[in-house]
Amino acid sequence: MQQAVEVYQFSTNSNVYCKNIDNINANTRIVVDDHGYLELGEVKRKQDIENTDFVDFVRIATEEDFKNMCNNCKDARHVLPEIKLEADRLGLDMKIGYVSYNLDRTKLTINYTADGRIDFRELIKILGAKYKTRIEMKQIGYRDESKIIGAIGVCGRETCCKLFLNDFDKVSIKMAKNQDIALNPTRINGMCGRLLCCLKYEDEYYAEMKKKMPKLNSIVSTPDGNGIVDSVDIFKETINVKFEKEDSFEIKSYELKDISLINKDK
Q1: Is 75 helix (H, G, I), strand (E, B) or coil?
Q2: Are 244 and 228 in contact (CB under 8 A)?
Q3: Are residues 32 and 5 in contact, defined by beta-carbon separation less than 8 angstroms?
Q4: Bridge partner list, 250
Q5: CB atoms closer than 10 angstroms to residue 203
Q6: Through-space distance between the first and last CA atoms of the chain, rounded to whole angstroms
Q7: Got the DSSP string for 78-99?
Q8: Cβ distance 165 to 171 under 8 Å?
Q9: Which residue among 7, 47, 125, 195 is least packed, with the fewest CB closer than 10 Å?
C-alpha cells in the first residue's frame, strides 16, 4: 500500500495516480509523464493505493500548457469526422466515440466500441501518415463511452459516470426486480444502453427490506384480525392489508412492527 495523489487527466477523461507531490494543493493543474507521454491533469486527493501503475510528476502546469490542451481538444474534434469516414471506408465494424491528443501531440488516441475484435492495422497506417503522430486504438466499454462523452440522465442531471464514478460496479437485472421496476429497457437502461448504475445505490436497502416485508397476497395477523397483504411501502415500513367482507372489502394501513405473517400465500 502506497500513498499517492489522484490526478484527473484531461485528455483521457480518467484518473491516474502520482507519487511524490505532497506539497501541491488540490485543484492544481500539473503536467505528468504517463508512460512516456506528457499529459495535463488536475490534482484531486491523496489516497492509499495498492497494485497500480503510477505516472510521474513533471511540473506545475503553465498557462501555455492549458492553452495547448484547449487547442488540442479543438483539433481533436475537427479530425473526429475524418477518422470516422476513414473507418467506414475500410468497412470496420466499430463505433468511434472520442479522440484526443496528449499534451505535446506525440500521440492521438482513438477510443472506440465494438462487439468483436477489429483489425485496424490499415487504419493506423493511414492515420499515422496523415496526422504525423503515433496512433493508439483503445477499445472501451459502452459505459466508458458515456463517461467520456457525458449525457443527461433520466433524472434530468448529468450522468453519474461523467460526474464522479471512477469504477463501474456490477449492476444486475435482479436489482431492478428488487425495486419492482418494470423491466422495460427505456426504464432501466442508461444512456449507454446498459443497466442504470444508480440501481446499485439503494439495492442493499431494497434487498434487506424485501426480506422483512411480507409478500403480496400473504395472510397476516393484525390488531384487527387476519387479512391479506394488498401493498407495501418499504420506505415508510407500512403495509396495506385487505379485509374481505360479505360483498365488499376494506383496506387498512399498519406499521411493519404491528403485523405478523401467518401464511406466505393466500
Answers
A1: helix
A2: yes
A3: no
A4: 243
A5: 18
A6: 56
A7: HHHHHHHHHHHHTT---EEEEE
A8: no
A9: 125
Longest dimension (CA), the chain: 86
- Which string of DSSP letters, residue by residue, matches 178-198? HTT----HHHHB-TTSSB-GG
Please tell me the distance from the alpha carbon of residue 17 to that of residue 45, in angstroms, as a whole number: 10
> How do residues 108-125 score in pLDDT, each as one tens digit?
999 999 988 899 999 999
- Please report which helix (H) or strand (E) contains residue 130, including its range: helix 121-131
The C-alpha cell that represents 245 in the structure block: 367482507
Written as nine digits, the cell of 51 is 497494485
Q: Check: CB of residue 41 under 8 Å from CB of residue 16.
A: yes
Q: Are the beta carbons of 219 and 266 closer than 8 angstroms?
A: yes
Cα 58 from Cα 199, distance rounded (Å):
40
Name the grid cell of 106.
Answer: 506525440
Distance in angstroms (rounded) separating the CA atoms of residues 121 and 60: 37
Q: Rg (Cα) of the chain, in Å, rounded?
A: 27
Q: Which helix (H) or strand (E) holds 146?
A: helix 142-149
In the predicted model, what is the mean pLDDT of the chain? 87
pTM of the shown model: 0.65
Tens digits of per-residue pLDDT, 146-183? 777 777 777 888 887 777 776 677 888 888 888 888 88
Question: Where would I find the H helices in 4-49?
Answer: none
Q: What is the DSSP letter of 106?
A: S
| 25 three-state secondary structure | coil
Tell me if 123 sits within 8 A of 82, measured CB to CB.
no
Residue from 129, 126, 151, 148 nearest 138 by CA: 148
- d(C-alpha 247, C-alpha 249), whole Å: 7
